[in-house]
Amino acid sequence: MDESEEPELRNPFPSPPSHYVKYTSHNLKLLETLKERVKDTADIASIDQHEVLSDITGVPSWPLVQLEKPRVDWILEEGYYNVFGDRWFVKETIPSLAESGGHQLYPPDPSVDRRPALLSIVRSLLVTYSNLIGAVVAPPPPPFLQVLPEWHRHMEWIATLAQNLMAAANELRPVQARGNLERMMQRQLDIRREETRAIHTKCDELESRLRSLRTAALEMVPKQNTGTLHETSISGEAITTEEVLRWAEEVT
Questions:
Q1: Which DSSP string do the residues of 144-190 spell out, in sequence order?
Q2: Predicted confidence (pLDDT) at residue 163 exceeds the cutoff of 60
């Protein structure tokens, strides 16, 4: 990689690579012609393209194989690829502290209980912080001694311990996400159960009210000695027993 391109790759919105101008129609046709004339594509990078394409004008000085598409099988085999100066893994995994170049103090295997190691890290952090306070209040070394002060060593060790704690916590992010999702789904289920229970309670109240209305409607009709209902006139209209029962059934 050209050193002049390094700042551009670190730009949040980097420009296209400088070699994008090589992907012209003419150069792509030259690459196809080179592939046709060279039977063994495995040796295409080691041949002299000017000799093979001597009858064609405009052959560039740089190798035409640079225009080849990335080999997906190579990317899958290596497990990562580089884009804009950053490495991206094919399988989304959280790299461990050791893989990131740090000093890992807890077991790398997630199946191993890490609590003893993390407790030791916390104790070491507290002890180092206490030593750091003592080193800060201590008089500085003479200027003619080319040695680092003691607090500098403590600060480096505290940084290492803090990195281990943060890395161990970051590896628990998937577990935390699953736990939050389970709690959220359980909360939604509880809310739906409460709403369903409230609907059932309201339905029971309505059914009880309708039964009381039906009973009241039946009691409003006078009875004969034989227990049958008389026809009653309300506002000049005759109401039969069948109409009252039919009205009660419609209400319920």
A1: TS----HHHHHHHHHHHHHHHHHHHHHTTHHHHHHHHHHHHHHHHHH
A2: yes
